[in-house]
Each structure stands twice: as structure tokens, then as C-alpha cells.
Amino acid sequence: MITLDNIQPIAIHLYEDEWPKWCAEADEYFKSQGLNNVYWMTGIHGAKFGIKAARPYLRDNPEQNWHLGAHTVAGFLSGYMIYVVAYSHPEWEYIMFMEEDCIFRDGWKENLEQALKDVPSDFDILYVGHCCTQGRETNHIKGNVYEVKYPLCGHCYIIARKALPILIENCRDACIPLDVLLFDYVHEKMKVYTIMPRLADQHGTELPE
After folding, report:
1. What SS3 class is residue 152?
2. DSSP-assigned letters across all residues of 58-101
3. Bridge-based pairing state of the strands 200-202 and 102-104
4. How far apart are CA 189 and CA 187, in angstroms?
5. Domains (ranges, CATH) in the chain?
6. Are 131 and 57 in contact, with CB atoms under 8 Å apart?
7. What is the pLDDT of residues 2-53, one digit of tens each?
8. Is 33 left (phi over 0), alpha (psi -120 to 50) or beta?
9. Are 60 and 180 in contact (CB under 8 A)?
10. pLDDT for residue 62
11. Contacts of 134 (CB under 8 A, 6+ apart)
């Protein structure tokens, strides 16, 4: 049976100018939530890494003449780095990926433990935090677990080890933000489930359900 005890939490800090401050505060917060073994990774700093992103964003409105910035590409590469590092740890059967601004709702732990009992055992990804599920094709599985095609946001989700090769193989084109790429091209290859309502928000950000 999958429980929180056999899920490895991984956190990444992405805020370029305040990483040390955010990291320390987030680590204390996660510990207050009972997550004492968080594996921390430092994301790629777009400007300091020398990323020059001139690729146009063409998905929604090609007329807007908007180009992906170094920060967006750095976030994409940082997420990809998480998948590669996680796959290098064969002892991690499941990981829970969290951004540093992830903040849990009251009762999240009990609700997540129940969701882990209700989700099909062969799941690839279980979204704990997400956004933009309204109007999506939805199928109720059990309890608070649903199959939604597909949520957006990536501030908190659980990944089964067997899904990591799929993510690594299909997330090599930083043409759009990572969560949008998963939505458009990757999730259709996976067994993706979503906890509704979400159990995790992003600090200081109002996310649509």
C-alpha cells in the first residue's frame, strides 16, 4: 500500500533573487507539516546560467509576438532536472514534487492518505496541487480522486518511478511552460489522476480551481 511514509518529497527553489530566504522559510514550513526528509534542489538561475531565450510562444495567440524569457526556460529545465535526478535514485518508488511556495490546506495529510488508498495502484501522476480543472473532461474514480483531462500547475504532485522515463523522454522541448507541455503532449501517454478539491495552493497566488 502506498503511504506518505514511502513517498520521497522533493522541493525545488526557483525564486532567483531570494533563494536562500525562501528556501529556509519553506523548509521550516514543510517540517511544520511533518515533511522532515525533504530532498532540496536548487533550480537553474536563468540569467546567471546565461540563458538567452528568443523562442516565440505560438501556442495560444501567435499574433501577440511574445517570446519565452530566460526565467520561463529556466523553470522548465529545473523541472526536467528533477525528473533526471529522481530517476537516478532507484530506491525512490514515488516522489512528491513541490515548489518552494507550495502551501497545504488544512487536513491535507489525512485527505492525501485517503486519496492514496483510492487512486488506482498503477497511477503515473497524482496531482495534489493544481489549477484550471473547471470545464475539463472529468471522471470520478473514488473519494476525492478524479481523472481530469488535464489539470495545469505543478506546485505539488506525486510521480511514480515508472513514469519518470516518460517524462524524461517527452520533456526535452522548452517551447512552452512545463505544465502546459505536460498538458499538451505528455499526459496522454500516462495515467494521470487529480485530487479535487486540491490539497495544496501556492503562497500569495490566487489559483483558479
Report:
1. strand
2. -SS-GGG--B--HHHHHHHHHHHHHHHHHHT-TT-SEEEEEETT
3. antiparallel
4. 5
5. 4-202 (3.90.550)
6. no
7. 888 899 999 987 655 555 566 778 889 999 999 999 999 887 777 777 777 7
8. alpha
9. no
10. 67
11. 208, 209
CA distance readout (Å), 140 to 81, 119, 148: 32, 11, 9
Residue 156 has which C-alpha cell? 505539488
Which helix (H) or strand (E) is 93 found in, with range? none
> Do 121 and 145 touch, CB atoms closer than 8 A?
no
Whether the CB-CB separation of 109 and 137 falls below 8 Å is answered with: no
Full DSSP string of 171-202: ----SS-HHHHIIIIIGGGS-EEEESS-SEEE
- Rounded to whole angstroms, the Cα distance separating 172 from 4 reads 30
Length of the chain in residues, anyone?
209
From the list 74, 8, 1, the residue with the least C-alpha distance to 40 is 8
Count other Cβ atoms within 10 Å, centred on residue 206.
7
The H or E element containing residue 38 is: none
Grid coordinates given for 47: 540569467
pLDDT category at 71 given cuts 50, 70, 90 is: confident
Residue pair 189/111 in contact (Cβ under 8 Å)? The answer is: no
- Predicted model pTM: 0.91
Neighbours of 157 (CB within 10 A): 24
